[in-house]
What does this fold into?
Amino acid sequence: MKITEAEVRYVAGLANLKLTDAEVHKFQADLNDILEHMAKLDEIDTSGIEPMAQVLSDAEETATLRADVATPPLTNPLALANAPQPGGGYFKVPKVIER
It folds into this structure.
């Protein structure tokens, strides 16, 4: 599967990026190289490989995980207590993205 120039420009637009033609071609080549590498990995026969497990699954007694203790949630007024401009139960922030 090859990535087209239009797809690179579309994704750049979603990310609100303005790319030059040179950058579009570079990203197109980079993404195609990544997809080509993934296709090579997909060809590897893994039928005889055991699925991987969590690292600490066999070490339950010696696992260094903290206890799971329920605590009361942060209330809205407490969360907004130090906000520079709270309003309507939300954080008020300046507009940073314009389209």
